[in-house]
Amino acid sequence: MEQYKKHLIDSVVIICFLTSIATFAATFFSVPSRLDAFMDHMTAISLFCLRFFSFVLLLVVWNLHKRKYAAWLITVLAMMITLLLYIFHQYVYGYIIMGFLVYCLLILLGFHNSFRRQTFKPSLEGVLLFSIILVIFLLLNAAYGYFILPGHETLYGSMGLSLQKVFRYLFITGGADRYSKFIFVFIWVCVAVCVLFIMRPLVYRVITSPKDAKRARTLVLKYGQNPASYLALEADKNLFFGKQVEGVIAYGVVDNWVIVHADPICADADFVRFLGEFDAYCQENDYRCLFMSATDQFLSEYSEMGYDHVKCGEEARIKLDDYQLAGGKMAKVRALINHAVKADVTVEEYKPLEKKDKAIEQAINRVSEDWMSGKKSGKLVFSVGGVNLHNPLDRRYFYAKDNRARIVAFNVFLPFDATRGYMTDVTRRTHDAPKGVTEKITYDAFMKFKEEGRIWGSMGVSPLANVDEGDNSNAVISKVLELVYEKGSRFYGFKSLHEVKKRYAPTEWLPAYFVYSPKSISVDMAIAIVQLQNSGGIRDFIKSQFKKRGGK
Question: What is the pTM of this model?
Answer without folding.
Answer: 0.71
